[in-house]
Amino acid sequence: MPTVAPLDLSGHCVAAVFLGNVPHFALADGSIHRLDNGHKTEQVHDGLLAAVLDPAGDRLITGGEDGKVFAVTAGGSAQELASAGRKWITSVAAGPQGAIAYGSGKTAFVRFADGKVKDFQHPRSVEGVAFAPKGMRIGVARYNGATLHFPAAEGKPVELEWAGAHTGISFSPDGNFLVTTMQENALHGWKLADGKHMRMSGYPAKVKSLSWAAKGKWLASAGAPAAIVWPFQAKDGPMGKAPLELGTRGNTMVTCVACHPSQDVVAIGYEDGMIIAARFADAKEVLLRRPGKGAITAMMWDKAEQRVAFGSAAGDCGVIDITA
Amino acid sequence: MSEAQTQIPVTVLTGYLGAGKTTLLNRILSENHGKRYAVIVNEFGEIGIDNDLIVESDEEIYEMNNGCVCCTVRGDLIRVVEGLMRRPGRFDAIVVETTGLADPVPVAQTFFMDEDVRSKTRLDAVVALVDAKHLPLRLKDSKEAEDQIAFADVVVLNKTDLVTPEELRAVEATIRAINPAARIHRTERSGVDLSEVLDRGAFDLKRALENDPHFLEADEHAHHDHDGHDHGHHGHDHAHPAAIHDVTVQSVSLRGGEMDQKKFFPWIEKVTQMEGPNILRLKGIIAFKGDDERYVIQGVHMIIEGDHQRAWKDGEAHATRLVFIGRDLDAEKLRKSFEACQAA
Question: Is B3–A314 a contact, with Cβ atoms under 8 angstroms apart?
Answer without folding.
Answer: yes
